[in-house]
Amino acid sequence: MDILETAQNLIKFRTETGNCEEINKCLDYIKSLFLQTDAKVDIFRADEQTAPVIFIRNTDSEDFDALVLGHVDVVPAEDDMFSPYIKDGKMFGRGTLDMKSFAAVALNSMEYVLQHRLPLKFGVILSTDEEKGSKGTEAFLKAHPQITAKIVLDNDVGGDILKIVTKCKNPVFVKITSHGLEAHGSTPWDGIDANENMLHVLNNIRKIYPYFSKNGTNPADKWIDTVHFAKICGGKVSNIISNYCETLCDFRLVETSCVEDLKKNLDRCLVAGVTYKIVSDSTPVVMDENNPYILDYKHFAETILGKTLEFEHIGGATDSREFAVKGSTVIMHSGTGDGMHAAGEFVEVDSVLKIADIQIRFLEKLAAEKK
What we know:
Alpha-Beta Plaits, nine-stranded mixed sheet, four-stranded antiparallel sheet
């Protein structure tokens, strides 16, 4: 498989989360890549409202030696970002780094396992709504409760090929709601300002979870609980005291924190008329850096790259958490690039090819161990 050509073909599909027509076209393209092979390919759809998942494998078993997880949906972008191009060793376009280049790597690994008949139970799972909560993956795993994998290869941690991620935080989204009493803006004593009460609560939260920014405070130890106020909405017009305000909070918790403790902290922050709801929570992914599979993978990567790799921790979440809780060894490693979710997103071409090589070498070793 020509990985770079496949990556660019994937990028040309405008698979912004929720764009069903383009997502379906993209999945049909992926399916077409395996028409002349022995692969079993299913496009899973729980219902018309839930995003589909494509499931490619070489076995009927759901007890896998190795799985690769990823997604093909992307965040919105201008039209020209869906016309990928390569310049100065970099591929530019929406999804080059997050993460269509590495979806192409996964598809290449699937083709390699099939062509070389590696004695591995191997599969690839690509979701289409990862950028908005992975409800499709949740539905897929609910429909496949017995699915397990000894090893999960997760390339959705893009940024630096010289770093293997061993910890991801737990994302917890909280909706805070403030109810007040309308009054004319000139007589605030006749009303109860929902916006004002919300500000009190958010200020209380900041006393527990400080504010960090690029041009402000930057903690020396970044493996801490954080929150950002993702969306604040309150008020109708300028001369009416607001009777309603809501804030969506994005908490990121380290593995030593828990949702129950977060709730206790939030309870302490509330004032009259303000309540909250946990919209969603997950689980952190924490891997032992001395895990033999991770060390084997690291050795192959260092041999191929000719450089020493480091372990790192990130605040982002990953779909591989669903397998981590089942006991899978999750190897989180991706290529080098920048501009994720921004204009000018790119991936270094050589890093994509190197990840593909590392992945295949690692799969060959797993296969050899089974013989």
